[in-house]
Amino acid sequence: MTAIVRATGLVKRYDTTVAVAGLDLEVAEGEIFGLVGPNGAGKTTTLRILATLLAPTAGDAEIAGISVRRNPNAVRRVLGFMPDVFGVYDDMKVWEYLDFFARCYGIAPARRQQMIADLLDLVDRGDRRDSYVQGVSRGMQQRLCLAHTLVHDPQVLLLDEPASGLDPRARVELRELLRELRSLGKTIVISSHILPELEELCTSVAIVDRGQVLAQGRVADIERRLRVGAVLRVRVLGDQPAREAARAHFAAEPDVASATLLEDATIEIGFRGDDAGTARLLASAIRADLPIVSFARAASDLEELFLQVTAREAAGRVA
Amino acid sequence: MTVRRPPELAGASAIWIREIRSRMRGKRAFVFLTFYLTVFAGLLWIGLRSATEAPLSALQAVSVGRDIYAAVVLIETLVVLILAPAYTAASISQEREKGTFDLLAVTPISSLAIVVGKLVSALLFLAVVVGASIPLASVAFLFGGVGLDDIVRSYIVIVAVGIGAGAVGVACSAVFRRSQPATVAAFIAVALIAGGSSVMWFSLEARVPEGNTAAPPEALLYLDPFVGQADVLCLVMGNGCRATPAPRATDIPRPAPVGVANPDAAPPPSGPAPTEPGSVWPWTVLAWVVVAVVAMLVAADSVSPTRRFAWRPGRIALPRRPSASGE
User: Fold this and answer.
1) N or C terminus: which one in chain A shows less Cβ crowding within 10 Å?
2) Which residues on B lie below 8 Å from A96 (Cβ)?
3) In sequence order, what DSSP letters do the residues of B16-30 get, joined into one string?
4) HSE on the CB side for B81, CA within 13 Å?
5) Per-residue confidence at B326, pLDDT binned at 50, 70, 90?
6) Is B11's CB within 8 Å of A103's CB?
7) Cross-chain residue pair B22–A92, CB shorter than 8 Å
8) Which of B15, B25, B306 is facing A91, going by the closest CB pair?
9) What is the pLDDT of residue A64?
10) What's the pLDDT tens digit per position in B157-211?
11) pLDDT on residue A312
12) Which residues, 6+ apart, have CB-to-CB distance to B111 below 8 Å?
């Protein structure tokens, strides 16, 4: 797939502080791409540069092949941006809010009314059309802000911490909405420091710290690159001596670095082998007539991965 | 025939429609308008009562009409000078403070359209305020002595001053991040532009030695909207009325003009030639239009760091695109 968002050597310096330090990024078309990083990592600055709100000190970025520095106005036509902190206009109704932005994008009057109705349906708030924006809930304002990014049908959506301040139910609704937008062909770049949220949603991520991308790609790919092996979780039937015998069997197998019997009757295996090795390990367990209930590679954990990547980086700096 | 709007101003209407809609929706605008008109009408009523206690001759009635007109015009000029920056000085900074500006700045609407939209929305509300007081000004017609053309001239000056002072407010709002300093700066800037030029003229004039007819350039006074309005009023008043201070008389005799046969019959003029009534106010209008244009350019350039004019220094060089040959 072609990259629809590309940043090359992006730098943003404020006096003595470097917020973004030579960041490179590529987001393929149709992805939900997560920017993962701690507070102050440079996620918001990167998104604001991509959204043409900040000029980079050096480097450049392109959205749909258009340079944010050379032609910011054309970039504004192909992207929608939702900042992490945003306000709402006073004394303005929900439909007027969307109508205002539609006018800003030069949407023809004949199209505006239908477009507003469609967007309110999309964010499931058609019934609040005549409510005042400042009077609706925070979750509704988030949805409305998201709806405003769509008035001109952009190719790319840049969402900075879109779920911050939302209750769990509103978060689930927002996730569903973002998936629906992806199915409509939008590319979504989303930043967050709440990793489980991104893990469920994103097709690819970039782990950002100190203004640089430390790792980028699909979560499973990053994991494959970073880890020497994998963690396998095996559940066996039987009493404690039977489980202990199973653990001893696995511990004696080649490529097994460790085999630990956990309290929930699961054996966690540190495995150095590849997929073929994993298959051989399972076949050997079956031949040994071990009562296996489940045998699986541990699911990727973005939080763990993030800690691993940032720890490596910190160790590299110390070295 | 359709009039094509310049592309730089596309979207400005979105801003002023939104602002006017919000402004006129609450009670505040109507409470203010009622208060303003009540105070204005009250002052006018007091003035009228004291002027018409005794029966007036036709000539006295004309004089009262002109006085009423002069008072209304000068008060409205002052009101516009105060309200225009008051309504515009927080127009952009407040959006930044409330967090709505980023949403606006990522739209393709131009900086010029943003600042023009802000200015127009404030001016439309000012037009409502000034327009609502026109019936009060027309009381002068009851007494006579004031023509429609006089009123038109006065309102041209008021409109120009409103545009200029409003534009200064928008510029301050764009330059300063916060509303409070923006408002203070806007009032100081308008006061300096409107009154500073007159203060400068009088301070320069005070330094001219006694007996010297040289005076500071009168053009300095053109920025003072009250001088412009006084010039319009002088057209109404007649009787040698002049908007700018009279030139100094001097005892130093001047040589008789060439071609005058009898110097006693045509005494040499003392000091510069007096300004004709009606010649100052067009300059006042022009000066405030220039102020407005400069202020709007400053505002458009300062509204966002990624929307600066191309000529602005400090722009960094873009990285070179690789050429087709790969060099």
Assistant:
1) C
2) 18, 21
3) HHHHHHHHHHSSHHH
4) 21
5) very low
6) yes
7) yes
8) B25
9) 94
10) 999 999 999 999 999 999 998 999 999 999 999 999 999 888 888 888 788 777 6
11) 66
12) B299, B300, B301, B303, B304, B307
CA distances from B129 to A88, A305, B35 (A): 27, 63, 11
Contact B102/A at CB under 8 A = yes
pLDDT (0 to 100) of residue B177:
85
SS3 category, B197: helix
The backbone torsions φ and ψ at residue A12, rounded to the nearest 5 degrees and listed phi first, read -135, 120
Q: Which of A284, A254, A289, A288 is nearest to A272 (CA)?
A: A254
Residues from chain B that touch A9, judged by Cβ atoms under 8 A, are 319
How many domains is chain B built from?
Answer: 1
Which stretches of A109-170 are assigned E, i.e. beta strand? 156-160
The token pair at A125 is 């708030």
Q: How far apart are CA B170 and CA B122, in angstroms?
A: 10
Confirm if A193 and A115 have CB atoms less than 8 A apart.
Answer: no
pLDDT in tens, A161-181: 888 877 888 888 888 888 999
Residue of B nearest to A108 (CA): B11
- Both tokens assigned to B29: 């605008």
> Residue B199 sits in which domain range?
60-242+277-303
Q: Point out the residue among B100, B108, B110 whose CB comes nearest to the CB of A105.
A: B108
Task: Work out the mean pLDDT of chain A and round it to a whole number.
Answer: 87
Task: Specify the amino acid at residue A43.
Answer: K
The answer to whether A291 contacts chain B (CB < 8 Å) is: no
Residue with tokens 């204005």: B40
DSSP A132: B
Average pLDDT, whole number, for chain B? 81
Q: Would an 8 Å CB–CB cutoff place A65 in contact with chain B?
A: no
* pLDDT digits 0-9 by tens, B120-129: 999 999 999 8
pLDDT tens-digit map of A89-110: 888 999 999 999 999 998 998 8
Residue B321 covered by a domain: no
In chain B, the N- to C-terminal Cα span, in Å, equals: 53
| Domain annotation covers residue B325 | no
Question: What angle do the packed helices A109-122 and A138-148 form, to 10 degrees?
Answer: 140
> Which one, of A60, A18, A17, A50, lies nearest residue A211 by Cα?
A18
Task: Compare A228 and A308 and report the one with higher pLDDT.
Answer: A308
Q: Residue B20: inside a domain, yes or no?
A: no
Tell whether A72 lies on the interface with B, counting CB pairs under 8 A. yes
Tell me, what's the pLDDT at B266?
46
3-class secondary structure, B58: helix
Compute φ and ψ for A269, nearest 5 degrees.
Answer: -115, 125
Residue type, A293: V
- Are A293 and A235 spatial neighbours (Cβ–Cβ below 8 Å)? yes
Q: How far apart are CA A21 and CA A100, in angstroms?
A: 37
d(CA B71, CA B136) in angstroms, rounded, equals 11
Q: What are A154's two structure tokens?
A: 């952009």
pLDDT in tens, A245-273: 999 999 999 888 888 888 888 898 888 88
Q: Does A224 touch chain B (CB under 8 A)?
A: no
HSE-CB of A185 using CA atoms within 13 angstroms: 4
**B14 inside domain:** no
In sequence order, what are the beta bridge partners of A18?
A13
Q: Do the Cβ atoms of A104 and B109 come within 8 Å?
A: yes
Nearest CA-CA distance, residue B281 and chain A, Å: 38
